[in-house]
Specification:
Layout (H helix, E strand, L loop, with lengths): L1 H19 L5 H17 L11 H16 L4
Length: about 70
């Protein structure tokens, strides 16, 4: 789990912090981070998820779970 967190943090630093800096205020970093997290979850394709976004994977998971739990499923 620690290796995964380190990988995500390294991507965050590479894709956002280092590319768009230097940052003048903490508020700039916070706003950019909010936008980055939205982009990461809704637009960035992930190879580990078969080139899908986390939002797509989550939606498919809950659709499948709902189907399995329905009386006709």
């Amino acid at each position: 789990m620690n290796a995964m967190a380190e990988a995500v943090n390294n991507l965050y630093k590479t894709e956002l912090i280092r590319q768009q800096g230097p940052w003048r205020t903490v508020e700039q970093v916070e706003l950019a981070t909010l936008k980055y997290v939205w982009w990461w979850n809704h637009e960035r394709l992930h190879g580990e998820l078969d080139m899908r976004t986390p939002a797509e994977v989550e939606q498919a998971y809950y659709a499948e779970t709902e189907t399995l739990l329905s009386p006709t499923g």
